[in-house]
Amino acid sequence: MPPSSAWRHYPQRYRLEAARCTGCGKVFFPPRLVCDKCGSRKSEVFRLKPFGTLATYTVIRTPSERFSLEAPFALGIVNMEDGVRLTAQIADASFDELEVGMPVKLEFRRLYSEGDAGTIHYGHKAVPVRD
Amino acid sequence: MRDVAVIGVGMQKWGELWEKSLRDIYVEAALLAIDDAGVDHIDSMYVGCMSSGLFTYQEHIGSVLADYLGQRFIPSTRVESACAAGGLAFRLAYIEVASGVSDIVMAGGVEKMTDVSGSEATNALATAADVDWEGVHGATFPGLYAMMAVAHMHRYKTTREQLAMVAVKNHRNGAKNPRAQFRMEIDVEAVINSVKVADPLNILDCSPITDGAAAAVLVPAEMAGKFNKGGVKVIGSGHATDTIALHAREDLTTIRAATEAAKRAYEMAGLKPEQIDLAEVHDCFTIAEIVVNESIGFFEPGQGGPAVEAGATDIGGSIPVNCSGGLKSKGHPVGATGVAQIVELVEQIRGESGPRQVENARVGLAQNMGGSGGSSVVHILEGM
Amino acid sequence: MAVGIIGYGAHLPRRRIKVEEIARVWGADAPSYKKGLELIQKSVPAADEDTITLSVEAARNALNRAEIDPAEIGAVYVGSESHPYAVKPTGVTVAEAIGATPDCHCADFEFACKAGSEGMFVAYGLVKAGLIKYGLGIGADTSQGAPGDALEYSAAAGAAAFIMGADDDKMLATVDETYSFMTDTPDFWRREHKFYPEHGGRFTGEPAYFRTTVGAVKGILEKAGMKPEDFKFAVFHQPNGKFPKRVGKKLGFSFEQIDVGRVVPKLGNTYSGASPIGLTAILDVAEPGDRIMMCSYGSGAGSDAFIFTVRERIREVRDLAPKTYPQIDENVVQLGYGEYAKFRHKIKMRGE
After folding, report:
1. Which domains does chain B show, CATH number per domain?
2. What distance in Å separates the CA atoms of residue B145 and residue B289, rounded to the nearest whole number?
3. What pLDDT does B32 receive?
4. Do A55 and B136 make contact, defined as CB atoms within 8 angstroms?
């Protein structure tokens, strides 16, 4: 990912900035220029609360090359509390405890780096919420 | 809009075609179609190819392939819609004939995937997903479909064995297809014990990396009678897109793009799913075939798994699916797949499929899709 | 104007490796290491954790306790000896992630294990000078120990963050006094482009850690006109479980005073996070009116000493973010040496 492309998405990757359509209330992550539900072009930016539940998950055993050090790792789609879904790796969880509906919290983590001389990409991963 | 018919089809044996370049592979299949059709020229061409750029570092292949096919100066267009490229190329060829702009149009598809390393190929394929919001988190194609499988299994109690049965059936069919990449039969245990890719999918749940091409020649239906084998009419054509990211869809257990594309095709054809005699469905992964069968109305939601278990989608079943062997056994040269589905339907409707022949095959449906369901193209063909 | 801590928080990785497991691989005598270091295990960062990620989560914990708008933070200072980039500060990513940019001063700090307390000191100083409203000082590390070396048993990972401010109604603990003691003492160092640090063996003890810590603590006590008995808690730099006990005794502090802040036995030496994380553990249990002595130590060498007095508000906010001892003890995963070596990039990969 070129530095400019990564940088452009810092508000989403670093701060979970989403947008709520002012026309119909639909939440978009990442924010969009036009709402696909009501066509409105106005929205307000807000930060997602980092909590949600797993809508689904898998364990990636043959990863793409840049994630080879992490494999096997869990990946999931999270139903965020604020009413939008996103894809994230699941960290610090044993594979047997994964289940649909599991509560998770998004934590700041390293996503990958462009080799040992390139930039490092940061974002969030889902970590199980344990009481 | 004129009625359109397919008068010729062609595809070669698919596999790792080390000695052949992308140009050779395409021209070979195109010539087979031209000979099958009995035409001496074509007016226009659409070529489906997901990424000649990432796989072979060559773009501009609309021109490259028209040139190498010996059809200089014709309008030739390279079409991209990830794995739905071929189906979309066929649709555009159909539209060009139906609209009267051209009379003899070739719809072809090709992919040359084996010159790059396995991981480069995986990276290229991953561009069909949402690079910024799925790929960056390590989502692979098997990973996305695996998540669809987990959601489907959680909601409908679809079993791991039922997924494997899709691969078993498709290999059984492909064993009878001389052009298939993998012609060995497998069993459920072999699928479940094969190398893990993304839980619950194993390597034998996944379509392979393949080199290959397929082509079809389309003409106005009223001209079809002039050619050797007559024509197979295109009675339905539908195309739809959906969100690129799996997570952006309301329901993770169905593929709306397939449903919408199929609806448009059924409407155009004036048919219901029950009236389809056989289908070629995009089984990039075993779960995909189950989900699509439900999405396009062959079975109720959640019944796709039990249906394959009961043999409903076998060659002799109530709705034979992937008699060609599907992507799993026949291979999946990405851009070519959608056109190869047409090849199978045409041959079946003509009665040329030998040991794979579906009895009384008159109406066939081809469903092609891109990525995790970001696009889908559906065609319905009928014997004339 | 009282200036002090208005928010605090620690963030620790969940993985651990035991002394026995490291000793097993190198054929060393585990019991003697455990006894000599008074240490049973250390924390290990996963492949996706680094000084930046640990700092961000610690800062978020501090913000949850401070209950302020992050845009009002005027400075972000991260002290570490394992900044992910040699050139590009850890602080900018932390500031961006918490929403403190762009009206913010930022610089990364480095001074072996006292880099964290430096960040705290400078943040405090800017608030006291009236230049900024709130300042964030973080100590964080994912330190490396050379394979088979004594330091491998203790080099751990963790982060602690402190928000300094002058708002009376937000005050959790005032900074009553500061004092820094610093000399050129070559006890432990790492040259540029080298992966592992070097050290002077036993020279790191009396002439370095002890001399400097004692110098700083005696200095601050004199400056403040106070005695060890005046304190409820004391936390010193903790490269192992023995040193803080020994220096505490030398200075006249009891074991009860240093017990809570001595987090190293089950956590390891978190380098720039060491005494700062100890301080967060103390703040998790301290009562209003309690006096706390904190003295860091960074090889090279220097110590930053602080005297804090805890305020009422601490009772209201300490449950607003994860406490430190639960992070040390709960939901941890033990690793084998192979996995540990993989996560700590000790395995030569293709192309290296």
Report:
1. 4-117+210-232 (3.40.47.10), 128-208+235-383 (3.40.47.10)
2. 11
3. 98
4. no
Statement: residue C351 has pLDDT above 80: no
Instruction: List the structure tokens of C80.
Output: 């570490």
Which contacts qualify for B79-82: CB closer than 8 Å, 24 or more apart? Answer: B79/B46, B79/B47, B79/B48, B79/B49, B80/B48, B80/B49, B80/B50, B80/B51, B80/B335, B81/B48, B81/B370, B81/B375, B81/B377, B82/B50, B82/B127, B82/B128, B82/B334, B82/B370, B82/B371, B82/B374, B82/B375
Known catalytic residue at C237: yes
Query: Rounded to a whole number, what is the distance in Å from the CA of B252 to chain A's nearest CA?
Result: 9
Query: What is the sign, positive or negative, of the torsion defined by CA atoms of B75, B76, B81, B83?
Result: positive
Angle at C348 between CA C347 and CA C350, to 5 degrees: 130
User: In sequence order, what E strands does chain B have?
Assistant: 4-11, 44-48, 76-79, 105-111, 196-198, 201-202, 212-220, 232-241, 278-281, 363-370, 375-383
Q: Rounded to whole angstroms, how far apart are CA atoms C28 and C149?
A: 10
Rounded percentage of chain C residues whose pLDDT exceeds 70: 100
Q: Which pLDDT belongs to residue B113?
A: 97
- The mean pLDDT value of chain C amounts to 96
Which residues have C-beta within 8 Å of that of residue C271, sequence separation ≥ 6? C80, C81, C82, C112, C113, C141, C143, C155, C156
Active site residue C345: no
Fold (CATH) for A3-128: OB fold (Dihydrolipoamide Acetyltransferase, E2P) (2.40.50)
What band does C197 get if pLDDT is binned at 50, 70 and 90? confident
> Which chain C residue lies closest to A127 (C-alpha atoms)?
C14
B83 is catalytic: yes
Say how many C-beta atoms besides its own lie within 10 A of residue C3's C-beta: 22
Please tell me the distance in Å from A130's CA to the nearest CA on chain B. Answer: 22
Going along chain C from its start, the domains and CATH numbers come out as 4-171+314-343 (3.40.47.10), 173-310 (3.40.47.10)
Q: For C57, which of A69, A89, A107 is closest by C-beta distance?
A: A107
Which of B118 and A47 is assigned the larger pLDDT? A47
Q: Is the pLDDT of residue B313 over 80?
A: yes
Model pLDDT, residue C182: 97
- Which residue in chain C is spatially nearest to A130 when comparing CA positions? C331
Nearest to A125 among C14, C48, C99 (CB): C48
Confidence (pLDDT) at C349:
80
The Cα C322–Cα C303 span in angstroms is 28
Please provide the DSSP assignment of B6-45 as one string.
Answer: EEEEEE---B--TT--HHHHHHHHHHHHHHHHT-S--SEE
**What is the per-residue pLDDT for A57?**
98
> Exposed, middle or buried, A2 (CB in 10 Å: 0-12/13-18/19+)?
exposed
- Please state, in angstroms and as integers, the Cα–Cα distance from residue B378 to each residue in A97, B84, B168, B260, C222, following that order: 40, 10, 25, 9, 85
**Domain spans in chain A, listed from the N-terminal domain onward:** 3-128
- Chain B residues whose CB is inside 8 A of the A76 CB are 147
| Cβ contacts of B244 on chain A, cutoff 8 Å | none
Average pLDDT score over residue span B341-355: 97
Within the 58-117 window of chain A, which residues sit less than 8 Å (CB to CB) from chain C? 69-70, 89, 91-92, 94, 107-111, 116
pLDDT of residue A31: 97
Q: Is the pLDDT of residue C216 over 90?
A: yes
Nearest to B290 by CA among B277, B307, B314: B307
> Could you say which DSSP state residue C62 is in?
H
- Tokens representing residue A96 in the block: 């047997």
pTM of this prediction exceeds 0.90: yes
Q: How far apart are CA C121 and CA C123, in angstroms?
A: 6
Sheet with B212-220: strands ordered across: B76-79, B44-48, B105-111, B212-220, B4-11, B232-241, B375-383, B363-370, B278-281
